[in-house]
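Progress note, sequence design subtask.
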């Protein structure tokens, strides 16, 4: 079977760019891993997709946990990245805030190096087909699957209204991913469950209606899966504990100096693995410097204040090269709009094909061969 699959995948199938569907056809979701290997060997393009909610200013947790991977992957793969404004609507933001935050996220991505020539980049609500797909998917989604989602429970515990959108959020996310035949979804660790739900929904749909969807996989980098915020919890727009990517250097420094630490005295040894300041240092220091600081921690004699100063210095230096481009984009909102509009056109072309396949499969609309 394996040899057959290899031959299938490398022998110029019409569906060559989407061998995952063949893997599923031949052997189910487990063959997808094998196909990923084949992708590497024969250098077939992987389709990478991810989204970020415009629910506030982007922070270094978003950057190191997700965006940096998105930007790195666009060089060798087909990137599909979007700003998830339908998702952000679940927390009922003021209309003007939602619109302006969406543009801010677009500017951040472009300033950090997203290349709109290579990568399809759009605003989710400009491709309304996803809401239709979400509805169709919701009709095969067991209630229990959504009831188990921890992100819904967390958000309600934080005081968000338990509206239906918030509850059904993972189905919309599944629609985002499945609409574009995505192979890999680079995200932070908090999104793992949502990608698992997507896979469950896709398998359920394929079992019921035929091999329609590619089964995606998450990509979570262990070393940056959870970037801590200044209070030591996961950095998140909803916890008010962020260091923003594009805040002023003085404000960035102040925030780093506020990162919570324990009260171990300067002279005593400290555990780098339990220290939020060290976790931030890992994001920006090179290996040699990290080893040095690690030894200093374990030996004792170094104060948290000294490490914080170095973290602040490195963080400011890391983002400094992108600041000028970010300011230029602030002066050029028409360009940003134009990028999003063109991205939406490209995304809609793919969405139209998928919806045709899906509508035919479930029996919605006129039969395809009756259409001219
Ligand atoms: P937030 O929690 O700040 O609202 P989002 O839910 O919009 O962030 O996340 C956007 C992307 O950034 C997701 O892929 C998410 O996993 C990642 N991400 C968010 N916060 C962190 C973090 N603290 N560490 C690592 N990745 C993160
Ligand atoms: N739920 C994701 C988050 O909060 C955002 C998102 C929406 C997303 N749709 C997606 C991420 C599809 C990856 C793929 O971060």
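Output:
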């Amino acid at each position: 079977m394996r040899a057959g699959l290899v031959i299938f995948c490398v022998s110029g199938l019409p569906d060559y760019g989407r061998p995952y569907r063949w893997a599923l056809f031949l052997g189910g979701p487990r063959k997808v891993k094998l196909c990923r290997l084949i992708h590497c060997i024969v250098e077939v393009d992987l389709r990478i997709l991810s989204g970020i909610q415009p629910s506030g200013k982007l922070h270094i947790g978003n950057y190191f946990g997700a965006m940096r991977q998105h930007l790195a992957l666009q060089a060798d793969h087909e990137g599909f990245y979007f700003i998830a404004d339908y998702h952000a609507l679940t927390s009922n933001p003021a209309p003007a805030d939602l619109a302006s935050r969406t543009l801010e996220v677009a500017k951040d991505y472009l300033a950090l190096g997203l290349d709109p020539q290579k990568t399809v980049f759009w605003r989710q609500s400009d491709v309304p087909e996803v809401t239709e797909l979400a509805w169709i998917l919701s009709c095969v989604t067991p209630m229990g699957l959504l009831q188990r989602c921890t992100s819904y429970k967390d958000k309600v515990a934080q005081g968000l209204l338990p509206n239906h959108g918030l509850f059904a959020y993972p189905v919309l996310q599944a629609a985002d991913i499945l609409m574009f035949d995505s192979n890999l979804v680079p995200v932070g660790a908090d999104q793992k469950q949502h990608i698992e739900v997507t896979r469950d929904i896709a398998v359920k749909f394929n079992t019921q209606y035929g091999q329609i969807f590619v089964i995606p996989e998450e990509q979570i980098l262990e070393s940056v899966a959870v970037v801590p915020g200044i209070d030591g919890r996961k950095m998140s727009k909803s916890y008010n504990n962020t260091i923003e990517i594009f805040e002023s250097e003085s404000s960035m420094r102040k925030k780093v100096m506020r990162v919570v630490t324990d009260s171990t005295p300067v002279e005593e040894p400290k555990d780098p693995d339990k220290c939020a300041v060290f976790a931030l240092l890992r994001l920006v220091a090179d290996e040699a410097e990290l080893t040095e600081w690690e030894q200093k921690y374990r030996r004792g004699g170094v104060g948290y204040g000294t490490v914080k100063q170095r973290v602040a210095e490195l963080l400011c230096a890391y983002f400094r090269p992108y600041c000028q481009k970010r300011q230029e984009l602030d002066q050029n909102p028409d360009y940003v709009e134009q990028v999003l509009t063109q991205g939406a056109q490209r995304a809609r072309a793919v969405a139209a094909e998928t919806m045709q396949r899906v509508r035919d499969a479930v029996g919605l609309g006129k039969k395809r061969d009756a259409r001219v």
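The chain has three domains: 1-44, 47-225+335-370, 247-330. Work on this subtask will continue into the next period as scheduled.
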